[in-house]
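Notebook B, p. 112. Complex prediction, attempt 2.
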Amino acid sequence: MSEATARTRLGALGLVAPLVLFLALFFAWPLVSVLKESVSDPVGLRAFPATAEAALGWDRQSEPPIAMKQAFVEDLRAIDDQQLLGDAVRRLNSAQNGFRTLMSKTVRAAQEQSGPLDLVAVDKRWADVRFWRAVANSTYPYTDRNLLAALDYQRDAAGKVVALPAEASANTAILIRTLWIGAVVTIACALIGLPYAMLAASLTGWKRQLLLGAVLLPLWTSLLVRTAAWFILLQEKGLINDTLIGLGLIDGPLPLIFNRLGVVIAMTHVLLPFMVLPIYSVLLAIPKNLMPAAASLGAPPWRAFLRVLLPLSLRGVVSGSLLVFMTAIGYYITPALIGGAQDQMISSVIAFYALGSANWGMAGALGAILLVATLALYAVYGRLSSDRAGSL
Amino acid sequence: MRLIDVARLLFGVFAVLFLIAPLIAILPLAFTSSIFLTYPIPDYSLRWFRELAVADAWRLSIVNSLIVGTGTTILAGVLGTMAALGLRNSGLILPGLFRTAFLLPMVVPAVVLGVGMQVFFVQIGFANSYAGVICAHTVVAVPFVVVSVSASLAGIDRRVERAALSLGASPLTVFRRVTLPLALPGILSGAVFAFATSLDEVVLTLFVAGPNQRTLARQMFSTIRENISPAIAAAAFLFIVGTLLVAAIALLIRSRSTQPKTPA
């Protein structure tokens, strides 16, 4: 018996193992890479390995030790990769202004002379401990710079966390905008989805099939096709404007595309099934005789609705809202195609950093924030739906 | 008719229109002769389908979508079916954990996964290759296969398999002659889901595919973004017809596979 159990257990693991390995490699590892990119800062260590070692014993407040200064000169002499040197200078300059000129002067001096070099004679700034602190800090392979910048914070010269100047802080605004658009879409979906699900649950026969089919059909249709369809409807000479002008309701075309309204309409359409289906399944589970019971006890229909049906369907609304909100905050395609510059959400900014400017650190930091938010919402959703399964 | 019934009817009609009208509105524009994607349609023509067949960018992207879609369907089909069989086995430790892990790719925002895949694929030399795109698509397609195959396996009476075993069939024979045919509908609909997911995938493709792996969805994305033309409507028409066709084939195979059982 135990041998047979062991064999089936092994067989089950063997069947599951290929997918586990595949997902570990192509799903988990990339997500870990995102988190790693958000905190990794390898340039300084690669450019100045000897300095990194010498900086270990320095307290970063007093005059840096001679050995560290000479190690830095040796590192500058050893660099033959111009790309790496450029990256390192950029990295140093982002921590402390003035490194661009300082480094070009110092590298030239270091490579022209051999033996010990008096750096302060090359440039007075090397007497300033702040510049040495920036060099020493850059050799640490991890940083919280990107994560702080993703929330519009930075570290000042003394290492304290302070807010970025207003003109450099765009990320909080985009995070708030992402949450705001997600919330508006969720509310719009709930306002349409709840009555829709109630209507579908109250009907029978072909009417119910029609309402359910109307929800399932968009779910089955390609997201790109649906987005293109909204493009056609919403554009300046689109069907909606043509119809409204034809009916004489408006004189000129309404601005419906490349703005917030268009994004909300298209995203509501795309995400509405995720609201309707959970509510519908909750409504189906409500015993049919509850409403007649309420009526027989003297409740008028509106009261029976408010006190019986609505509270019971609320659970579906919460599940659906979590699902819609979670999906909405990660949306990329619809805002990118239907929205204007002021309607781009966090995903667009991540894509811009990764595809447009090859800034993996910032892409990773914003990605990490979005990932954590989504997984947290999913955990709440999972808890809710397993509660429901348990109670039934 | 009471006021509330009128309100219900109006709401129902408008909601159904809201859901379905966009999908219907795009189809006739595939046959426009105009260069603009607007109504009214001046004349009907097939010029935009010709454009899809002749223009290199479109033709290549359709071929690429078929290659990637087929690869994804096979890979996700095999991995997902095996995993679903393993999940069914009562001997598996922590089945809930495995099940959640297999569904997670549906939840994680595509852009975040795309950034990670781009970084990782460059490291392992997988970037800008068909294999890379297929693996990326398989990650998001495989949950559908697991769900669909699991559902059909749950409907199999385990006593049938035990009966076959007790009659002397080897486990492999039982799998081949009993389990597989019974699970086939689920495997097929999982495969259709996987193919449809791959066909529609844009975000991961943006991050991991090179210019040579540009898929139809990717081409549609940049066409809508840069210079929208009725070629989009023609491509959308192909998408919708293609999805219906694949679903119809799956239904056909399913009905044929269930036929021989009835006389026996």
